[in-house]
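Ticket #4471: complex job returned nothing on first submit. Input attached below:
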Amino acid sequence: MSAHSQNSTQSTRLAHGGRIDRSRTLQFSFDGKVMQAHPGDTLASALIANGVHLVGRSFKYHRPRGILTAGSEEPNALVGVYRHGDQTPNLRATQVEVYEGLMAISQNRYPSLDFDVGAINDVLSPLFPAGFYYKTFMWPKAFWDKVYEPVIRAAAGLGKPPKLADPDHYANLYAHCDVLVIGSGPAGLAAALSASETGARVILCDEQAEMGGSLLSETGSTIEGLPAADWVAATLATLAQRDNVTLLPRTTAFGYFVQNFIALAERVTDHLAQPDANLPRERMWQVRARQVVIAAGAHERPMVFPENDRPGILLASAGRTYLNRYGAAAGRRVLVTTACDSAWAAAFDLADAGVEVVAIADMRATPPEPLREAAARRGIRVEAACVVTGTSGRLRVSKAMLGRLRNDGSVVSAGDVTCDAILMSSGWTPSVSLYSQSRGKVVWNAEHEAFLPGASVQRERSAGSCRGVNGLAAVLEDGYAAGEQAAEAATGAARKGGRLTATGGEASTGGYLGALPHDRNAGRVKAFVDYQNDVTAKDVQLAVREGMMSIEHIKRYTTTGMATDQGRLSNMNALAIASGALGAPLPQVGLTTFRLPYSPTTFGTFAGSSRGDAFDPVRRTPSHDWVVAKGGVFEDVGQWKRTWYFPQGSEDMHAAVARECRVTRQSVGQFDASTLGKIEVVGKDAAEFLERFYTNPWKGLKPGRCRYAVLLNEAGYIIDDGVVGRLADDRFHVTTTTGGAARVFAMMEDFLQTEWPDLDVWITSTTEQYAVIAVQGPKAREVIAPFVEGIDLSNAAFPHMSVASGRFAGLPCRLFRVSFTGELGFEVNVPARHGAKVWELINAEVVKQGGCVYGTETMHVLRAEKGYIIIGQETDGTVTPDDAGLDWAIGKKKFDFVGKRSLSRPDLVAKGRKQVVGLLPVDPKQMLEEGAQITAEANPAKGTPALGHVTSAYWSEALGRTIALAIVKDGRARHGEVLNVPMPAGAVPVKVVDPVMYDPEGTRLNG
Amino acid sequence: MAEIYTPAASLAPVLRQDAVSIQKTAPLARLSFRGRAEAQAAVAGALGFALPQAPLSAATGAGKVALWLGPDEWLLLAPEAELEAFEAAVNAAVAGLAASVTDISHRQDAVLVSGPRAAWLLNAGVPIDLALPAFPVGMVTRTLCHKAEVILWRKAEDQFVLECWRSFQPYVLEHLLDAARELSTA
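Support reply: We reran it on our side without changes. The output follows.
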């Protein structure tokens, strides 16, 4: 082995081979140390090529850890990657592609990876057995807040969260296809090929940067007469040329939902050194597939032997991948230990590449003869019936202890071997995660000693090694058939029954589940089952001893299988250990459910472009730009931006609102009411429909007149209100609350379609058809009169609660005479595109009359002075019309209306219900807090139920004092009583009064 | 006939790229028509053609358009200047019949999304299949663009009308422009 160039840091890069681009050299850094790599490298392959295996510290014991795998299931090599001046934590080095200038850091260590003070936990590990959280932190109770939780929080988690807002943007795309193929190994490629040949729309995705899966690490096998890697290239070229195929590398299928809806996360720019800022970092593909082919392959299992977690110990297939795909040797003296055939191929490839293979230790008594012959040809020492019983080496494995398995199952020492890497394989576990997510139930297969997909619940089929098919030729055949079958099921295209020929890639036999036997002190050694969560074989056995019988309990007690790989590496070994400890057959112990996401997925991918102002629609009224220009302050009301108040000069909110209230009552105020919901109810049964829907009677309402309307739910509680104007016998203009518009419309449509489809009536939302400008105050008539054509505005012709169609400033208009302030008031409805212009025209007149514009806060104050309720403020879903003092709004002679039956329920007519009242603090300057509780006593005994609570509280400029509305038990019978509002600074005495606190005679309204 | 949706002459395109462009359209007369069979038949008198009865279909003629939105619901379009006459004619046609005619000319605004990547761009926020066989030219539907309800009408292989309530349009455009960013890269 020789370094490929002088000055290269790549000490274990082979001179030849691999799929990396050796014509270019890249610089990257890990923990500040600058190293070299080539395009095509992952961070993991680059580190291995640089002889670096120590990449992190483990979660609980802070043990030195190295790269274990070459895929997304990597439990150890979690790193932070710097970008835009911040770092993204917990990326798997096996998935991070190296680009020029990549900066990565290790995690979970202090002060450094080589010397980590947290490693004391390893020495103290007897204190941290399985379930230690549950055992240790139970007592004393008072310690939880002050001691345990802060310590656990400080120690918990891997990596550090980024500090800055995410500077990237993310995309979303909805996609549809006939066949979605997940995984681009031999089965997936064959499936995509055969499915797309029929003309079916095919999406092929793979989580890796390069498609081809295991074929990219393969040597010696051929497909259709081509070396495997060449066949991959040819096949991808064929697929890329087909218009009906979408190829998605770097794309993880992370969630399988109902109705064949699959979520994919595409990593678009993470691998680029200088990504165009216009490219999204990641894209969520929301795919609706007629048929799905899951070709997810299989995961190699680690061997559970003592100290199986030292840096330099890798899965055999990972070692082979680093060698064949990246031209990087896992070590210079490599021990291969296995229970199955496939690891031998890694040993042979290493030896053929000039790496010293110190031995192949196979736990089987008689490994297959052809393998032994192939080893002998290469001069590799083979130890049969041999296991690794321990390892040593502080920051990297330097020695392995071997043990001989005797017939009785015991182990005796077979000496030590020095090595700087161990490749291990306990066999293969089919990847059933996505099948399981599709709600399918896995079935135990004794022959394969594996859980395999059972019946399909959704329109999917598994193909290749994820359903237990082994050997290249069989996998290709299975994938090809799955693609054809899926296409036929999706589109009806007839199958051609084609197949692909292959040589090499023979099926691997053998395998072992569970912890290996050894001759060490079982109480003192750690043989890791779940690397990321630091769960050992001992922990699983302890959980069983302590009474856990279900794998679901064992999982939660030990946290095995709860790491980011969801137990893909650990589950089967943990199950076998639990099965042994329980003395129950493995399938009886069960398998935990695989949940989404398949691998960690960023919040950004989920958010897509729905962030900031685009998270939810921001709805603006036609006056919005004018208000912005005038310095108005907005508040959010549902999705709407409504003007809250208009400060002038140095006014604060209190001063502005006081002025707006004063000016409106003295002369005139202008208010944007466009956000109120508006529904056009039309048809010969329109009045009948409203009669049944709202509490009020409607049939007697004359065209040109309006009425206040109350809406109940079927339980008899107020859920909305508004004003309804009758425009014609068969046409009503209904208004709703701003927040209730969509809800009321949907409820109307629901009743019309399901309860009263016989009525000839239709509803149409006109909320956004009209800009609505309220003009309120003694001078209101003077303000609008210059613009109005065709409507007599006199009190006699157009009294309070009137509506008429006419022209306003030459535009079509619906004019209402209504008031939510207690003043003479009009609401001008003009088509919305003219709203801004009309707003300004009216404002000019308002200014002439010495008036002002006002916002929602002033509107709230003015209506509270008049005792008008606001839905959601005075009501909370438990308030009846009578509670709110709206008994008068109930059409008692009506046959029925929504909620009528409930109004006679005993509890709704019982005495002692809470009723809306006015409150006047005894100290007129004392402001109450909305939500404050109300009691009879100033200092009630602990546990005394409140009589009610404050629902609205304001400074009333008109009354020169503070006021409030409240709901109080038996409130109407308490007018004149003094009650108390207990506050932290002492109780506030308040007088209960009628809610109509200003102009109770209503003279101003009719002015 | 002339296209009913025309780019708003006074407004610069919202987006102009080779791959896709977005252009606001000029105001239109829009009537929501709902009614029973007899009234549906009667509307033809005012339109000059029969209401399309096939789900998700559109009918055009005599400078007017009828878009099927539901079993008893159509969106009727006419040039803006004809609003009052059009509304009066439709009301007269269905007088005495079970129907509702409501002016929603100002409730909605439309954009034209055009170009070879128009369907791709819309699928950033519209969840339905916009492949030509699934959503052919002439098909119209109510659907969602992210959280906003929209009406989508395919005018040509590479051109769609995207209409929504006026206050939702900035939200819809913000998402589409965000998704279009990557089309400007090499």
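Chain B touches chain A through 46 residues (CB under 8 Å). Closing as resolved unless it happens again.
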